[in-house]
Design a protein that fits this description.
This protein is of the alpha/beta class. It has ten helices and twelve strands. α1 links the parallel β1 and β2. The longest helix is centred in the C-terminal third of the chain and has 32 residues.
């Protein structure tokens, strides 16, 4: 096993190295102390079996390394160790694609080697596909955009927002072959092309699972959106932004399940011939 440990505390780094070399005699060990050095090492062409990340680093945090590594195409097994964190931190790391999250409490070093082996064995499981999501967000209100961005950056950093102010701009972005979105968030009240018109285009032309964001009193529009193929709708009321990450993930899972059902039906149809 070849491991890169990202930890800025020399004392923790040395203790971890000693413990792991006892538990995993064939271990190849590299260590760096910052987000920048970790990404430089990964980009240098070095191939690692495991990326062991401390939560807090001198120029950022372990989640920064994980998210940027995934964006750059590095599919290394990731395990996070943390001296201080909370349930939200655990969820963020695991949703971003980490295989395990280990608090630095008690004799955690005694079982670290086994946890790393288990994480490597779990690599590639379907659960990891939750990973990073790209959301095409069409919204003309800058205050709403800023509010949504801040919430996603803080509570759902595994979800990346691509923002456009109107329907034509969003559709033009999708036409670029290199661009891909997993879910669309569409505000009902857009300049020019309405949110419903955009939703219809997203569904019919791009088969993109879409969520309509409406104001109070727009229930009829929400019902029409569902008829047009929207996966869900959400009303702009106090605290609505807090629900958006879960709604986005749910829409993505529903779309993946629907695609799986279609593929299975085609397979069954082919087998019956």
């Amino acid at each position: 096993m070849k491991l890169l440990y990202v930890e800025d505390n020399p004392f923790d780094r040395d203790l971890t190295r000693r413990a792991l070399l006892k538990q995993l005699p064939g271990l190849e060990w590299d260590a760096v102390g910052s987000v920048k050095d970790a990404l430089d090492r990964l980009d240098s062409g070095q191939i690692y079996d495991v990326l062991l990340l401390d939560m807090w680093l001198q120029d950022g945090c372990g989640l920064d390394v994980l998210l940027e590594a995934r964006r750059r195409g590095h599919d290394t097994t990731v395990v996070t160790v943390a001296g201080a964190g909370d349930e939200a931190s655990v969820v963020q790391f695991l949703k971003a694609g980490a295989q395990d999250y280990i608090p630095k409490r008690g004799p955690y070093l005694d079982e670290l080697g086994q946890r790393l082996l288990q994480a490597c064995a779990r690599r590639g499981e379907v659960f990891r596909a939750a990973g990073l999501l790209t959301v095409l967000y069409t919204e003309s209100n800058q205050d709403d955009i800023d509010l949504t961005r801040r919430h996603f950056e803080r509570r759902a950093p595994h979800i990346s927002l691509v923002v456009h102010p109107d329907g034509p701009a969003a559709l033009a972005w999708l036409e670029v072959p290199e661009h891909h979105a997993d879910v669309a968030l569409v505000d009902l009240r857009l300049p020019g092309m309405s949110g419903l018109e955009l939703l219809d285009q997203l569904h019919s032309r791009h088969h993109l699972p879409s969520i309509l964001i409406t104001g109070r009193g727009d229930e009829a529009a929400a019902a029409q959106a569902m008829r047009l193929g929207a996966v869900d709708y959400i009303v702009k009321e106090h605290g609505y932004v807090s629900a958006l990450p879960c709604v986005v993930e749910h829409a993505h899972v529903l779309a993946a399940y629907a695609a799986l059902k279609v593929a299975y039906a085609r397979l069954q149809e082919g087998a019956g011939r």
